[in-house]
Specification:
The protein is mainly alpha-helical. The protein has 5 helices and no strands. Helix 1 packs antiparallel against helix 4 and helix 4 packs antiparallel against helix 5.
């Protein structure tokens, strides 16, 4: 090969590696933002449940969501900081979360609406985490996602039990 051709291929390979690195970084930062916003939405809807529901099982579940998702978001923020990943500010994350927060329709039973919301929210969050585990390149975030998946799946099962219970009561 000519030196010019070798230089061209070396430059092209370097450019491709840089693009892949930037893509992996953007993917990691997107996951951090989406996972954080979903966690904030869980916390905010749980606070709403504590305020609006008198049902002990709903209140217990809501407190667990606050505790678990607060802890998860703290771990995720610490990991993002350690890996120098840019994370959206709290206001931006809250705006993202607001789109996910429980909306009640007139006449809808709060407990049933909250349980339904939690099933959908946890299904979406589990899908986000599984997709990241399967397709991502940041080993630390993959480990975080893999570690969190069993807890999220447990939350989903708990939410489905509440959904079944409160659907029967309507």
């Amino acid at each position: 090969m000519h030196k010019q051709t070798q230089a061209f291929f070396a430059g092209a390979c370097g450019l491709i590696l840089a693009l892949l690195s930037n893509l992996a970084l953007a993917q990691a930062e997107s996951f951090v933002d989406q996972a954080s916003a979903k966690g904030i939405a869980e916390i905010e809807t749980a606070k709403m449940a504590l305020d609006k529901s008198q049902a002990e099982d709903i209140r217990t579940f809501a407190q667990r969501m606050i505790d678990d998702h607060t802890q998860s978001n703290q771990k995720l923020a610490k990991l993002a900081q350690e890996k120098n990943l840019e994370m959206s500010d709290q206001a931006t994350l809250m705006d993202m979360a607001k789109a996910m927060i429980l909306k009640l329709r007139d006449g809808e039973d709060f407990n049933a609406a909250y349980a339904n919301n939690q099933v959908v929210a946890h299904e979406q969050t589990i899908e986000l985490y599984r997709e990241y585990v399967q397709n991502a390149e940041n080993p630390d975030l993959v480990t975080f996602a893999e570690t969190m998946l069993p807890k999220l799946e447990e939350h989903l099962q708990m939410a489905k039990a509440l959904q079944a219970k409160y659907a029967e009561q309507q």
